[in-house]
Amino acid sequence: MDSLQEFETNSNPETNSTIININTTISSSSSIISNSTTNSTSTSLAAAASALSPSSSSSSSPTSTLSRYENQKRRDWNTFGQYLRNHRPPLSLSRCSGAHVLEFLRYLDQFGKTKVHTQLCPFFGHPNPPAPCPCPLRQAWGSLDALIGRLRAAFEEHGGRPEANPFGARAVRLYLREVRDSQAKARGISYEKKKRKRPPHNNNSNSSQASHLPALPPPHPQQPPSGNQQQ
């Protein structure tokens, strides 16, 4: 029986090589699928990237050596580049202006996950509404502000001039400020930066300063009266 199995194995080398090739293909396909699943995120910006280019996540090379910020900046830059290519008519980066950046930000709103109440909504200005409402979902101001910061840095890293950076245009800054103020009123929250509290000055600081003062010389001893005055 053993000799028969050896004969069948040796007599079909092409079949064995085909099986090995199939197994190799299956293992390589599974590794590609696992890598793409690991690199995918559940954020709304990742949804926008997949909508622009569904195959971009599987074709991207692994960037495990880069930091999380650098990886996110590269993905954002690729997403914006794909948006320019899908634009009608297609736009080149040299012709991109602040108006096109605003179009890109408004396009991302359809992938937002932040509830922004309208003025007619009974929950307008409530940070924790007790019930659902039909108000639209938008991109949060913090996400848009961080996105513009990454794209602004990526533009200059790719050879763009700082004075011609469309992500630093005045119209973009005004738009972000308007989104911040409107969302703060609609959601009943504040985006103001908290000022760092200075450590209180107590008596210990005064005593420590007094310890560094130079020591005063001892008082001079009083001299006894002279003998002429004694009788």
Automatic annotation (TrEMBL):
Top-level taxon of the source organism: Eukaryota
Region of interest (Disordered), ranges: 51-70, 183-231
Keywords linked to the UniProt accession: Developmental protein, DNA-binding, Nucleus, Transcription, Transcription regulation
The keyword Transcription is assigned to this record: yes
Location of the ALOG domain: 68-195
Gene Ontology BP, a term: mRNA transcription
Keyword Manganese: no
Annotated Low complexity bias: 51-67, 202-214
Subcellular localization: Nucleus
InterPro entries cross-referenced by the UniProt entry: ALOG, ALOG_dom
GO molecular function, one term: DNA binding
Segments of skewed composition (Pro residues): 215-224
GO cellular component: nucleus
Family: Belongs to the plant homeotic and developmental regulators ALOG protein family.
The protein, known as: Protein LIGHT-DEPENDENT SHORT HYPOCOTYLS 4
Taxonomic source organism: Ziziphus jujuba (Chinese jujube)
Gene that this sequence comes from: LOC107422848
